[in-house]
Amino acid sequence: MAPGQTNQTADEQPSRKDSLIHISNPHLEHMQEDILYHFNLGTGTHDFPSMFGDVKFVCVGGSPSRMEMFTKYIARELGLGDATSDFPNICAGTDRYCMYKVGPVLSVSHGMGIPSIAIMLHELIKLLYHAKCSDVIVLRIGTSGGIGIEPGSVVITSQSVDASFRPQFEQTILGKTVVRSTDMDEELAKELLQCAKELNEFNTEIGKTMCTLDFYEGQARLDGAFCSYTEEEKLNYLKAACKAGVKNIEMESSVFAAMCKLSGLKAGVVCVTLLNRLQGDQISSPHELLVEYQQRPQKLVGHFIKKRFGKA
Predict the structure, then answer these.
(1) How much is the pTM?
(2) Vertex 155: Cα angle to 154 and 160 (nearest 5)
């Protein structure tokens, strides 16, 4: 049966004990070449096992410049480069996404919102599959709006929920609604939290992340081009989210969690909060402070990767 035709049950999920990447698409077996169009890569033109077979960590984030910066950061942390090192963009033939590789770490941008990250993930998962990768951990590092926590706090996602606080990702396939689980890997979240405690540089919490379809009305902002609700209604909604265990809001975690789980990839989401949404909507902190905030998920994930390699 093709993927997405029915709701996935626990029995249908790939075993976490199986370290290989799962592709649930029988049609791929009959293709002479698989072209990853948005990466400008293909199995007929590139040797995926040679290029990517040693990948153990994939770090993804919205901004191309942020992922390039993370590449240089993790290279220094692992002793695989310095400030003068040049890391070529593997996806230089396209302007959709960027991709960099440092040893066993792949760094990829995913753009903004569910559609953009979903396209990237389809091609990323196929890339890892064709490269015969195993025991891969995928981590999303990014920014978010906090609910009831101080700006600059880092949230490790325990579960992604939709705008109605349901732990699920809904997608329409062939005109039918398919519902998929958005649970994150519990052990990985605990391990990341332990890394944060060891760093002891900024407040870090585990909690639910609400994934919305847009930045303005979908996140109950009052400063968009359109707004049909009052400030009181906005605050009541955000307080209800907080009561439901939501600590932050972004626009990618639900499909990220669902797709990684379907493919057997251990995954985590680590986002810094740029503001407390109970106190306002606009991001008004000084640029220098925002830059420092955005480095916090990178530091945490960098420490986690270093520990895995015994270099922390």
Answers:
(1) 0.92
(2) 155
